[in-house]
Amino acid sequence: MQPEESLRMVDLRGDGCARIGAPTDTVNARNHAAGRAFARYVHAEHTDIDGIVYTSRLTDDDVYAAFERSTSKLVLAKTGSLENHPELTDLLRRYGIGIVA
Q1: Structure confidence by residue, pLDDT tens digits, 38-97
Q2: Which neighbouring-strand residues pair with 27?
Q3: Alpha-helix runs per DSSP H in the chain
Q4: DSSP label at 53?
Q5: Distance between CA 74 and CA 51 in Å, rounded?
Q6: Given 31, 32, 62, 85, which is the most exposed site by the fewest CB atoms within 10 A?
Q7: Burial of 50 by CB count in 10 Å (0-12 exposed, 13-18 middle, 19+ buried)?
Q8: Number of helices and strands (H, E) in the chain?
Q9: Which is it for the CA torsion 77, 80, 84, 90, positive or negative?
Q10: Are 64 and 51 in contact (CB under 8 A)?
């Protein structure tokens, strides 16, 4: 099933920050404050934008952050229990994440 409408994303990959005049800390800083502030600004001031795409500084993969207002444009591909995901244990160990229940 294909979505009926494409997402409109702000693309911060590559030279994306420079092209729009955003600080590079928006996507590259260890502290996420600049990125969060930028996302709040885009969300509040550009209601025609559905989210932000950027490159992860840890994995170099593309990250798509969709705003809640755009969820009707998304198509659910697969669901499952996170606790039973086969890669969960390795990911938690690799990134030093603990779960408190």
Answers
A1: 999 999 999 999 999 999 988 889 999 999 999 889 888 888 888 788 888 898 888 888
A2: none
A3: 16-20, 25-28, 33-45, 88-94
A4: E
A5: 12
A6: 31
A7: buried
A8: 4, 3
A9: positive
A10: yes
